Automatic annotation (TrEMBL), chains A, B:
InterPro entries: Aa-tRNA-synt_II (IPR004364), aa-tRNA-synth_II (IPR006195), aa-tRNA-synth_II/BPL/LPL (IPR045864), Asp-tRNA_synthase_2 (IPR004523), Asp/Asn-tRNA-synth_IIb (IPR002312), NA-bd_OB-fold (IPR012340), NA-bd_OB_tRNA (IPR004365). GO terms for biological process: aspartyl-tRNA aminoacylation. Aspartyl-tRNA synthetase with relaxed tRNA specificity since it is able to aspartylate not only its cognate tRNA(Asp) but also tRNA(Asn). Reaction proceeds in two steps: L-aspartate is first activated by ATP to form Asp-AMP and then transferred to the acceptor end of tRNA(Asp/Asn). Its EC number is 6.1.1.23. It is found in: Cytoplasm. The keyword Aminoacyl-tRNA synthetase applies. It comes from Oceanispirochaeta crateris. It catalyses: tRNA(Asx) + L-aspartate + ATP = L-aspartyl-tRNA(Asx) + AMP + diphosphate. Its main location: cytoplasm. This is Aspartate--tRNA(Asp/Asn) ligase. Keywords: Aminoacyl-tRNA synthetase, ATP-binding, Cytoplasm, Ligase, Nucleotide-binding, Protein biosynthesis. GO terms for molecular function: aspartate-tRNA ligase activity; aspartate-tRNA(Asn) ligase activity; ATP binding; RNA binding. It holds the Pfam family tRNA-synt_2.
Length: 423, 423
């Protein structure tokens, strides 16, 4: 019977079978070792026979488990039978069993089908899988319903640019930049509280460590709020939950990268700084005046938050009207909107949305838009839409910042950028 | 403080606030009733004042809760204060508070932003949200890891046709028909057991009650299997779990449509019928020879299974080589592949995949393909890939068949078909 590497200690003195990849071979003059890798970890197999195996070959190894001081975990297998399930060629294009720290990002991504076997690289996606789960679990506990909405849409939610066009039978559609209209529709449908975990597409020509053209958006929309403060409270509680669960369950993934989470208990201290004041804080720290919260300013304000509030996160709210999409709820000359900056990177944009039909109709001309352009979207306001708002978290950016990855592309299994369309 | 409609019984004798949509107005000559709808259900509000409210207007109503024999749930609110949160226009394009059974599908979908407010229609998506959760919970309990893979790919997995093309900067990519190559890569990466919940795209010109061009695919891939029987066992256990959970938690959604699940205990009896024999069974029942398992045959074989095995589901396996994609593991003249038919509709296709590099290289020319065409995909076989296989379940079809919906489009929030690109 197959036993997982992590469980061999429970089979001490018994004959079992391990199945997995040959992670490493060691020849200590007459005594040979196979380090086998399976989904649970590594196990050591010892034999006196000569071994003619390439690393990454898939094997089933049968033998007796015994204690061994020198083996990882304190137990090893004395090999009695070796089956080759699939041979690996000897010209492995990427070192699976070494720390990839000195390998450039391009080489990692060019060899993606193999570089994902590297345990350190794979740990990024073990953590990411859990982040998705924690996100959904938290929201379900708050009575949110999961939705799946179309990614093929007529136009953009955030304006007409930065859209990828799709040939759709005899017409053209676009890849959705966000599920914005749909998540609002589902709030207005009566679900009130919805979330979606899905791809989003931005045809931006940026090539920076913080941009990818296809990403996983963790979207939230919530009815019966009063201001964006209700949303920031929710997000702070979500972050507290995420960080707590990561600390509970993902220490090995953190350790692989030297990653850490902020102190979950400090999430209730995340400062809320109006946009104007944020610029002032950054200007003071830099000793020169800044006019917008650019990437440098995002780093500075998080350093400030760490020093002043013990957490490297800042909500910036009260953005001016012209910096936000037309559907953002106004608040005098400002808006009920916010960003969340985490370790120098914006991971969330959100806010209250306009929900009143009259206000929407008055707003559109100010943005050079017409009711007709909005198509069916306008009808959710015409027929009774509660006060609501929401936000979205970029999954890859969140993963990146927890683990301390240099580039957001490292946190996407198969990233797409301006030049990269495969593998 | 806001209380949900379902909880007003706990506030008997207290003044509370309800917020929601005006579902219905009743005027009983001097006594007026508002039936308010929120995410939890309906509540009755009574007042002697004249009401000038359109249905779907969003209100907050404050008043004392008292017992009332005639009220739904046995309690109602005596109104003291009414706030209008958002007015609804009086020309509602779709009846939210009536059973939509006599409304045609086109009208339901043309007015999608409003028809989703209909509680019966919305219940489809409450169930669907839970199906997603049950699916993920079951797989996590079996040590599967969730993945999110790119939907922008160089070519098709199932052959070159039926692909939507995307303008991607200066080049073209296609929308993924399935995460096939990526889920196999993640098995080979060492995760061994993976699942993905994501959109899949088929540019098929079909316009039938069983086809949509964008659907949510519940994908599974699993390493260290021997034959497709391991996969069918897993899927039968998954179905048993899903049906059990639906019965436990979704009775209201089932009742809205008169839907049912098969008996969960009978899932271990799902017959496994080789493709040849399935044709024979259908031919005998129809009294004429059938040459393929077409939609009619799928209905007939499920009727047969219900009569013979007490469950309206059949696994059909041992498909001939030419009926399956090139990557399907051969088994003599047949393949280690299967479909799952549920109430007359194929909801799953799956099978063991070729995992040996040598076999893959020998197979490609038989399908008129070359190693170069496979691009990076071939490398997972070249460098050690364990025996593995998987399957996918169409979420909308599964939802459709549990609720007994006539058309799969009813089970998609914003369906896309050959002509429908919105809302």
């Amino acid at each position: 019977m197959r036993v997982l590497a992590k469980d061999i200690k429970d089979s001490n003195g018994q004959e079992i079978t391990l199945s997995g990849w040959v992670h490493r071979i060691r020849d200590l003059g007459g005594v040979n070792f196979i380090i086998l890798r399976d989904r649970s970890g590594l196990a050591q197999i010892v034999t006196n026979d000569e071994l003619d195996l390439n690393v990454e070959t898939v094997i089933s190894a049968t033998g007796m488990i015994h204690e061994s001081e020198k083996a990882p975990g304190g137990y090893e297998m004395q090999l009695t039978k070796l089956d080759i399930l699939a041979e690996a060629s000897s010209d492995l294009p990427f070192p699976v069993n070494q720390d990839p720290e000195n390998i450039g990002l391009e080489a990692i991504l060019d060899n993606r089908m193999i570089s994902l076997r590297n345990p350190k690289i794979l740990s990024i996606f073990r953590l990411q899988a859990d982040l998705i789960r924690y996100f959904a679990d938290f929201l379900r506990s708050r009575d949110f319903t999961e939705i799946k909405t179309s990614k093929l849409v007529a136009g953009g939610t955030e304006g007409g640019s930065n859209l990828f066009e799709v040939d759709y039978f005899d017409t053209k559609v676009c890849l959705a930049q966000s599920p914005q209209q749909y998540k609002q529709t589902m709030v207005a449908s009566g679900l009130e509280r919805v979330f979606e975990i899905g791809q989003a597409y931005r045809a931006e020509k940026h090539d920076t460590p913080r941009h990818i053209n296809e990403y996983v958006s963790l979207d939230i929309e919530m009815g019966y709020i009063e201001t964006e403060r209700d949303l920031m409270t929710l997000e702070a509680e979500l972050m507290e939950y995420l960080f707590r669960k990561v600390r509970e369950n993902n220490q090995a993934d953190l350790d692989a990268w030297g990653g850490t989470t902020p102190d979950p208990d400090k999430c209730k201290n995340i400062p809320i700084i109006p946009h104007d004041q944020a610029k002032k804080i950054v200007s003071e720290r830099l000793g020169r005046r800044v006019f917008e919260i650019n990437p440098e300013a995002e780093r500075v304000i998080c350093d400030w938050a760490q020093e002043e509030h013990g957490i490297p996160m800042v909500f910036i709210n009260a953005f001016p009207r012209k910096k936000r999409p037309f559907y953002t709820y106004p608040d005098g000359l400002k808006t009920m909107s916010f960003d969340l900056i985490f370790r120098g990177l914006e991971i969330t944009t959100g806010g209250r949305r306009i929900n009143e039909y009259k206000m929407m109709k008055e707003t559109l001309p100010k943005f050079g838009m017409t009711e007709e352009e909005l198509g069916d979207y306008i009808s959710i306001f015409k027929y009774g839409c509660p006060p609501h708002g929401g936000f979205a978290i970029g999954l890859e950016r969140l993963t990146q910042k927890i683990l301390g990855l240099t580039n957001v592309k490292e946190a996407s299994l198969f990233p797409r950028d301006r030049k990269r369309t495969g593998p």
